[in-house]
Specification:
Blueprint (H helix, E strand, L loop, with lengths): L20 H28 L2 H8 L7 H27 L6 H5 L1
Length: about 100
């Protein structure tokens, strides 16, 4: 720790800030709820359905382990919920103003 001198200005530490904070926030608002929803949906779905039995019904020639079934199921649920969240975020964005409206 450096001693403080009276009257000396403190140097500010640079903080890495994203260039477009709104985009990062929007991406976070899409990714986090979709991840959480996929986790809940995976838990509920696989509490009822065994992934090995499901793999035997859907892909009888392909051998999938229980952990592989959980993984595939989670990412499929995440893709579905990510799509829903992304579409909602797209609908929430206000429309751009036309150039003629900006000139006024």
């Amino acid at each position: 720790m450096t001693p403080k001198r009276p009257g000396a200005r403190q140097a500010r530490t640079a903080v890495a800030v994203p260039t477009d904070d709104a985009r990062v926030r929007r991406l976070g608002a899409i990714v986090w709820p979709s991840f959480f929803s996929a986790g809940v949906a995976t838990t509920v779905f696989f509490a009822i359905v065994d992934p090995v039995d499901l793999a035997g019904i859907t892909w009888p020639r392909l051998e999938i382990t229980r952990l592989g079934g959980y993984t595939i199921g989670f990412f499929m649920f995440w893709l579905c919920t990510f799509s829903a969240c992304a579409f909602t975020a797209l609908l929430v964005v206000p429309p751009r103003r036309r150039r003629t409206e900006r000139a006024r």
